[in-house]
Amino acid sequence: MSATEKKEPILSVKNVKKHFDVGGKKILKAVDGISFDIYPGETLGLVGESGCGKSTVGRTLIRLYNATSGEVSFKGKNVHQLKGKELKQLNRSMQMIFQDPYASLNPRMKVMDIIAEGIDIHGLNGKKREDRVIELLETVGLNKSHASRFPHEFSGGQRQRIGIARALAVEPDFIIADEPISALDVSVQAQVVNLMKKLQRERGLTYLFIAHDLSMVKYISDRVGVMYLGNLVELADSDEMYDNPLHPYTQALLSAVPIADPSLKNERERVILKGDVPSPIDPPSGCKFRTRCPQAMDICASTIPEWKEIKEKHFVACHLYN
Amino acid sequence: MSKILDVRDLHVSFHTYSGEVKAVRGVSFDVEKGQTLAIVGESGCGKSVTSQAIMKLILTPPGEYKHGEVLYNGKDLVKMSEKEMEQVRGKEIAMIFQDPMTSLNPTMTVGKQIVEGIIKHQKLSKAEAKEKAIEMLKLVGIPSPESRFTQYPHQFSGGMRQRAMIAIALSCNPNVLIADEPTTALDVTIQAQIMDLMKDLQARLGTSIILITHDLGVVAEAADRVVVMYAGKVVESGTIDEIFAEPRHPYTWGLMNSMPKLNQDRAEELSPIPGAPPDLLAPPKGCAFAARCKYAMKICQEVDPELTEHSKGHRVACWLEHPMAEAYRREAVEGRQSV
Amino acid sequence: MSTEKTYTPDLFEPIGQLDKRAEQLNRKQVGVWKDAWLRFKQNKGALLGLFLVLVIGLLAIFGPLINEYDWSTQNVTIKNQDTAVDGHYFGTDHAGRDLWQRVWYGAKVSLMIAFLAVFLDVIIGVTIGGISGYFGGRVDAIIQRFIEIIYSIPNLIIIILLIMLMEPGIWAIAISIAMTGWVPMSRIVRAQVLKLRSQEYVLAARTLGASHKRILLKHLIPNVIGPIIIAVTFSIPSAIFFEAFLSFIGLGLRPPEASLGVLISEGNGFMQLSPHNLIWPALVLSILMFAFNMIGDGLRDALDPRMKK
Q1: What positions does the domain ABC transmembrane type-1 occupy (chain C) (predicted)?
Q2: Chain C contact for A21 (CB, 8 A cutoff)
């Protein structure tokens, strides 16, 4: 979205760290100093393998976790210092969609009450509660008859849309979608993605879309950030990222995605990474990716690569580009 | 090519407190020697039950083999006793599962778990079995196999465990390997490693593979033939090129269209399959997919279509295949391409 | 297709209206509790248990209305009758009191004590377990240490002290049973809450700005009810048994008051001459224990969250 240029960011993340004490004097550095901005109306995709800290980023932004250090400012205010009225306002304007459609809806509540939760908490009136819920159900492609049902009667895709309706009830501007489709069957993932895109068009929502499915992320995001072991390694416009990935990790990640087209099977060159992701409790020195990097150099073990803008709007942290 | 496994009209049900769940409702397919057959479908379509039924791993009760046969080299596995099956499992047909965390025994060293199978099926001494196990670990690409041999599963990472599972499965040179979502729980970079490994081993050992998955990308890269399942039935089967280049069932179209293409325009909408699969406690009278099918006709709600051969080896169960629906079918195909 | 001649062209009309068709819920609408009942019904033992509890419950309430005697009037002329004559269905005891009346009156008292004790268990256990699990960290650590201290004192000592302080009566016994009985309940609730508080629906409520009170009352407690009910059905028989035990060793109700424990204790003295004095109350006690345990087993299967999809 070219309109995002030169706008003030809606959310600005500066050198945020989130460390967990895992006992025995060990510290798990789930997020280890990341910085990025999100502009109004855009979708920023955040990808990476499990354990890279992408979900922790989302939860830290919305205050489910307190940041160990660094600053998250949302609309110019430091999220982690808000209290009282301002905190309530934050709860309304920043919302979250969760990963597991089976765990994200309270099994003992009716759909009506699930969706109306935000309305009840914030005492939003104006319209009658029931009318508002029905309107939201229709927005997400369900209807009135679904309001009196319990979550276990719905399929995964339908539940996920109920979760979206719950978030929309407080009329947020910014939504963190934490792997919203990874627990869904392929055939219904698009139900959720289409809905999210429609809502963005109609309401100008801003998204942080956390996922590990790279093809879906490319489709939904304007810009994409790639994380590895608690750090961002690359950030660029999504077309640029997919056409011209710079970081060796991004290159490997993209080439590992299986493509549903047998005719391309033999044409693709694949970078198959060796080994597994190291433990975030005791990550490698220097560049954390060096242990699996096909192009690792001596400097990678000793020095942490700098986060630099190599091209316009294309950031990367890698010694190859120094 | 010869058929090594031939599944004919298999029906499997589960008896629950609220009634009989007809999980597999008449599935037929065959696997040829040295080939990879992929079974794809959404969760709950019966693909995993089918694979467990081949190995006779379904507990009865609550499960029940209602009908059909599973012919392995001409012998019907469904009729075999548990004792006879023990000789088949592991030695003739082996299986790897989705979750490498729970499919290894946490209280036994990885080496011992490999050796166990080898000693059971091949008359080798302990020392020979150990040697063979280390060789298997090396084969599946586990570094320093001698020291890994004495480690426990929790000392292995997810990808390593799946490698160890493959080592166990292949240690007795089975003719058929059933891989039930072998990479679903793994990250993409690890998934690529495991798929590569499986392809490589197949080329070397000539194993036939049944690959159960929901990921069409994995299918496209690994399979020779594809069976598409929906609500306990086969709706389409054919070679990989037939299924990807000329899919004929609206459900297969739906699966293909619901994923973004490589160069998908961001302004364009994806076309998901609306709704959700039917409840197999009370499967619908007609075609199970009719409720979610854009092209459903009256007959689809009344009569379940049979699996018919469109061209040699390419079979489809859809009323659009009927001569009376020919014009409508052409219209539908055009409509699909313009989307 | 071999049967194609039987189809007419109108069957091949498209039906359209995809949007309407697809979103229809194809699952039967079964409420959470109805679902549990369907599962419970499958368990024959649990149904038998439920039936027995209902029968004994009804007899405890209405049984005394069936003959014309009452539970405390003595009639020394008909001591220790072991046959049913003159409407003394269970015979009479050593003081010539009608045993039918005494057994059902005693069963009522025993059940009241058990229900009261378990009610107190739930109130204390759920509150403390809920707070401990939900807030976690320091609060949890302090509460758990406190519980360990209480639990390490033999409960008989606590009960003897309490009974000495209070008049032995229904309340005193119920409170003494509850004094230590709440601990297992609080542990169950704590474990459940610890597990549930990181569920995504609780996180969702937090991101919406829900207060602690709202999260506890709306999201956590309703989802802990299943395990609480199971624990209750297992606590009731143990409370009944404990009451009987206390009365038997002379710490509970005292004759002429009656409870199943008192009756058994009294009957014990005449076991050789008039065993019916012991047999009837012991039989009722055993059936109650058996029945509640069967119900508990059935409920555990019916409400176990692991069984749910």
Answers
A1: 107-296
A2: no
